[in-house]
Fold this protein.
Amino acid sequence: MKNSVELKQERAGFITEANEMLELCKNETRNFTSEEQVSYDEKMSKIDELKKSIEMIERQEKLNAEIASKVVAPVSNEPKEVRNFSFFKAVNDFTNGKLDGVEREMHEEAVNEARSAGRSINGLGIPSFMLEKRDIVTEGGYGTGGSAVAGSAIAPTATMGYAEAMREASVFNRVGANIMTGLSGNVIIPVTGTSTVEWEGEVDAAADGGANFGKVELNPTRLASYVDISKQLLLQNGIGAEQAIIRDLGRAVAQKIDAAIFSTASVTGAPASLGATTNVNENTAIVFAPEASVFEEFLLLEQKIADEGGLEGNLAYVASPALLSELRKSAQVAAVNAGMQGNLVNGYPTYFTSGCSKTAQASGVSATAAAYFGDFSKMYMGLFGGLDIMVDPYSVAVNGQTRLVLNQYMDWGFANPDGFAFTKVASGVAGS
């Protein structure tokens, strides 16, 4: 059935056509012919029918919005703890068509959440508030100091957050970006422009400061992945196995996100990467030098941001793992200190992800690896609804496996992209 907007557009079309018929007869100073009268009456009847349909659909849409707001509202507050949820049980029950208990409740939460975002869940739904955290607790409860008590012969109770493993393996959500979950529609984030001021005479007119507002707009983009798991493993339903599967799915998603964000060129189908975003500073002035100068090349990125007046906020480096050993071998010669101390380069947190682009070493050409520096509080990521996991027991049934196909809708953008800089650093590591 069409929504209220589509019905209103259709009704407006009939009204326009009916009015044109009347205007034609008025201009020609005549009445309708018998055929015109029939056509006009049909249009008026259709206009009245559509009016009733629009009133009915608008009422239902309002009720749907009320239900959706009740579901989504908790996401923006403190995340819920859902005890006794079993990922394996949910997959098994969904496969057998008998989803019940807390697993059914969570699936229904995800369905309602997806509806509020204008889409549908086609498989097993995981609501967005379950992306927050995970605790494993045995039936024995907690011991002194809140530590989990092990050794229970009874199946453990789990408060599970699907994406906890994703946090362990990814960079995008550790660099200080703004991550918004449970979104139900397109999001526009205003960005304040830079104002200018001038010295003026006592009675001179003030100059235009020129502070224009920009924006970061987030729209749902689909990310998909899958993992094959043993049917025997599903039947065993051990908590360790659940953690392994969740970690595998989480890492598959995390690697895709990191690769799309930190590539020097945008990935097909994904939102624009940081390296391909307009006004991000590319340090093309670097002359590739021996490995010992990698630290100096990193400092040139800081210089770029300093020139833009951006040395504030959640400043951090993100670089290809190919540069790790070279950074640790480099030195601040003047200060006779190591270029990298712990996880800090020149005092700034440094994260490594294979998502950063790197090229293979070819004959006569150095291998290169990407590195970024900037204020990651200017990065915004939106997650639209929860996860949709299609449970497919057939595609790999010959191998005794079930395939889980994951769909997540997300987007990201960068406010003040000139607060970021990147380069392709000469690397002694070959590979792609």
